[in-house]
């Protein structure tokens, strides 16, 4: 098992990529904290993991609140005595073109996708630096690397996450903490399932592999980067896109 006895927090783990990552981590031997703002999603995911024979606890967290994040990290360490991995996966969209985007739409996405990653990364880094090691994994996006029509706010956050990832890798390497990001392409999640069929078909056609990614595709990437198999990888951005940017 690649993550045997590791303790991992995964934000946005109530569904989609976060849920798939939590289940993959458990299959690889980790104990996981299912962190999400939705009580119902947290409860369901925790119960499903326990039914798999895995160990999981829930944490209701608002990643935009440093107090909420601090409480989540503190309770994790109190229960398990350490924190080996955090996956900063929580994120939202509020799409609009530049001239039509409202201040509220911009601020909401910035707060969750950028400030939320900052809050979680900062609190996790304090614990990991003190214990002498750990792994921080951040959710970027192909949109953060190449931009996308109607996603000024989202693209800005995902590019910002890359900047934080590389900065933290430089700052925390001497403490034994690795920091990497994953940049998914078009992934079939509850967020994208709401899109019209013709848009999904267009996304498939853009990729040389001619399919959308699955949450499990991204979970596999996080699992590799969290494991000792990636022990000499830090400051990297792993694109998992099906070749959509070629």
From TrEMBL:
Pfam families, A to Z: adh_short_C2
GO BP terms in the entry: fatty acid biosynthetic process
GO MF, one example: quinone binding
EC identifiers of the protein: 1.1.1.100
Catalyzed reactions per annotation: a (3R)-hydroxyacyl-[ACP] + NADP(+) = a 3-oxoacyl-[ACP] + NADPH + H(+)
Top-level enzyme category: oxidoreductase
All residue ranges annotated as the Ketoreductase domain in the record: 6-185
Entry binding sites for NADP(+): 12-15, 89, 154-158, 187
Free-text function comment from the UniProt entry: Catalyzes the NADPH-dependent reduction of beta-ketoacyl-ACP substrates to beta-hydroxyacyl-ACP products, the first reductive step in the elongation cycle of fatty acid biosynthesis.
Oligomer and partners: Homotetramer.
Protein name: 3-oxoacyl-[acyl-carrier-protein] reductase
Organism field: Proteiniborus ethanoligenes
């Amino acid at each position: 098992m690649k993550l045997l006895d590791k303790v991992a927090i995964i934000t946005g783990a109530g569904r989609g990529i976060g849920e798939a990552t939590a289940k993959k981590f458990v299959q690889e031997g980790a104990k996981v904290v299912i962190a999400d703002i939705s009580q119902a999603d947290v409860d369901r995911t925790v119960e499903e993991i326990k039914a798999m024979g895995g160990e999981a606890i829930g944490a209701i967290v608002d990643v935009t609140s440093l107090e909420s994040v601090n409480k989540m990290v503190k309770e994790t360490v109190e229960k398990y005595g350490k924190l080996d991995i955090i996956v900063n996966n929580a994120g939202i969209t509020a799409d609009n073109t530049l001239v039509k985007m409202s201040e509220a739409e911009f601020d909401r996405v910035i707060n969750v996708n950028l400030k939320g990653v900052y809050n979680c990364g900062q609190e996790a880094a304090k614990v990991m630096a003190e214990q002498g090691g750990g792994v921080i994994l951040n959710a970027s996006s192909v949109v953060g690397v190449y931009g996308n029509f109607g996603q000024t706010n989202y693209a800005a956050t995902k590019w910002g996450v890359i900047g934080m990832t590389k900065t933290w890798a430089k700052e925390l390497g001497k403490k034994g903490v690795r920091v990497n990001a994953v940049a998914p392409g078009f992934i079939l999640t509850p967020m994208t399932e709401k899109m019209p069929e013709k848009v999904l078909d267009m996304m498939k056609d853009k990729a040389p592999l001619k399919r959308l990614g699955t949450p499990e595709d991204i979970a596999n990437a996080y699992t590799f980067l969290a494991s000792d198999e990636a022990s000499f990888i830090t400051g990297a951005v792993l694109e998992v896109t099906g070749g959509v940017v070629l």
